[in-house]
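User: Just a sanity check before I run the rest of the batch. Below are the C-alpha cells for the first item. I only need the designed sequence back.
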C-alpha cells in the first residue's frame, strides 16, 4: 500500500471521528478461562486458542506461553504495524524492518521472595533495525511518530486507569 492508498482508506474514518468523537471510542476485549488441572489460562484470540502458563523461572515447564513474552510480543506487533503505517504515510523509503523488544524481570518479586523486588518488568527496550537510505533526520521522525502513535507503547508509557472486579 502507498501513502495515497492509506490516506484514502483512513480518510472516511478520520472524518467520522472528527464529526462525532464518540464513534472513535471502542472497547477491545480479551477473555480467558483458567484451567482446572494445571496452572494455566486458555485465551481465545479470535484466531486461535492459546494457553498461557508459568514461566520456567517460576516453576513452569516452558510448554505454555508466558504472559510476559506475550506482552513484549504485543509491543513488537503494535510497534511494527505502526512503523509501517507511519513509513507509508511519510513516503519513507523502507526495505526490511525488524522490531524487537526485551524486558528485564526479577522473579523474586513474582514469587514473593523479596518484598523490595518489583513484580513486573523493571525495564523494557524496544529496538528497530531498518534497511533504509533515508537521512537520520527522517529516521528520527519515523521513530518519534511510531512511538507517539503505538497504542501498546503509549499504554505502557502513560499508565491507564486500571480496575479489578470479581463476582460470583
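Assistant: Here's the designed sequence for the first item:
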Amino acid at each position: 500500500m502507498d501513502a495515497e492508498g492509506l490516506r484514502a482508506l483512513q480518510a472516511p474514518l478520520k472524518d467520522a471521528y472528527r464529526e462525532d468523537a464518540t464513534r472513535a471510542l471502542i472497547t477491545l476485549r480479551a477473555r480467558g478461562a483458567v484451567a482446572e488441572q494445571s496452572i494455566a489460562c486458555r485465551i481465545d484470540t479470535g484466531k486461535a486458542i492459546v494457553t498461557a502458563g508459568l514461566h520456567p523461572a517460576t516453576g513452569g515447564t516452558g510448554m505454555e506461553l508466558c504472559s510476559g513474552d506475550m506482552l513484549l510480543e504485543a509491543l513488537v506487533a503494535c510497534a511494527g504495524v505502526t512503523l509501517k503505517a507511519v513509513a507509508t504515510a511519510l513516503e519513507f523509503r523502507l526495505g526490511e524492518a525488524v522490531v524487537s523488544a526485551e524486558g528485564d524481570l526479577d522473579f523474586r518479586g513474582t514469587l514473593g521472595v523479596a518484598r523490595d523486588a518489583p513484580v513486573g518488568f523493571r525495564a523494557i527496550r524496544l529496538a528497530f533495525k531498518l534497511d533504509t537510505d533515508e537521512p537520520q533526520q527522517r529516521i528520527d521522525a519515523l521513530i518519534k511518530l511510531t512511538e507517539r502513535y503505538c497504542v501498546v507503547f503509549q499504554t505502557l508509557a502513560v499508565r491507564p486507569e486500571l480496575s479489578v472486579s470479581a463476582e460470583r
